[in-house]
Specification:
The protein is mainly β and 107 residues long. It is built from no helices and five strands. The strands form two sheets. A three-stranded antiparallel beta sheet has the order 2-1-3, with no helix packed on it. The protein has a two-stranded antiparallel sheet with strand order 4-5. The radius of gyration is 19 Å and the shape is globular.
Length: 107
Amino acid sequence: RTDAGEYRLTNRGGSGVIAMKMTAKTGKHVVGCLMVDENMDMMALTKAGKMIRVDMQTISKSSRNTSGVYIVKGDDVANVSRCPKQPIEEEYDEEGEGTLLGSDELE
């Protein structure tokens, strides 16, 4: 997470702004860039089909020319998206066993 004020404006024909150090350790590509605040979560979809939800407060703030923070290890990220925080609610049946709200039971 980097404050947007750290990125200078450029004009047409400018040399650009370095957003992230690209090394063999970090990978060759930037998958996405999101404008977020601390009241949001980020979801990352991997090429293997895994979906990972990350609270933005757990990612520390840093300067703009850094190598970033690991979210997923051992798989390539295909896409990232932001989403609002939603508390996990549980509903209870007559026996007092909890199930996630909105989950369907398999028969």
